[in-house]
Amino acid sequence: MNTDADGGWSLVVPLKPLAVAKSRLAAAAGARLRPRLALAFAEDTVGAALECVRVREAVVVTDDPAAREVLAALGARVVPDAPAAGLNAALAHGARAVRARRPHARVAALNADLPALRPAELARVLDAALAFPRAFLADAAEIGTTFLSAAPGVELAPAFGGASRRRHLSSGAVEIRLAGVDSVRRDVDTGEDLAAARELGLGPRTAARWLPAAG
């Protein structure tokens, strides 16, 4: 993790309460394993992010007590979802929490469901984002978004959910086009997504929960 007082990215990672997170995964994982997988995804995402040399801090926005404890133990700063008004409000709240402490911080939103995330690939995305006031990375399906950045002095203005790639383009954010950053694009909503993430290589917490169940 970058500890330079003046440098490094602050990542904002939103996480729903585990009881309702990743509902579309229930068909593949079952009702009991689904919330445990949602937490494992977040653990692997945050753990990999904090290992990235470009990252100064990870700020997790969640009201889930179990997630709060586990992710704080990994080194994340956890803030409550005070707006309680959905994903984009949570991300904007997290960005404000970052800049309340560091007004000139470089901020990026990162999905919490990237269980194959690789620190070196995230570093490449962050380096590419430095060139633009706002930039984003589309998901593997090229419909949604897994990453959105804002330079110092620029509002994050998140528009995640559904066809967010189009909305972020329309908002003026520049799309990052890089080969070889599949782990940053592979979010997981369904069993098919999880199989694709497994092909890339699951992080240790997700692998420990999913591989014994998947066989």
TrEMBL record:
Protein name: Phosphoenolpyruvate guanylyltransferase
EC class: transferase
Pathway listed: Cofactor biosynthesis; coenzyme F420 biosynthesis
Residue ranges of every copy of the MobA-like NTP transferase domain listed in the record: 48-134
Signal sequence extent: none
Keywords: GTP-binding, Nucleotide-binding, Nucleotidyltransferase, Transferase
Keyword DNA repair in annotation: no
GO biological-process terms attached to the record: F420-0 metabolic process
PANTHER family: 2-PHOSPHO-L-LACTATE GUANYLYLTRANSFERASE (PTHR40392)
Organism classification: Bacteria, Bacillati, Actinomycetota, Actinomycetes, Kitasatosporales
Keyword match GTP-binding: yes
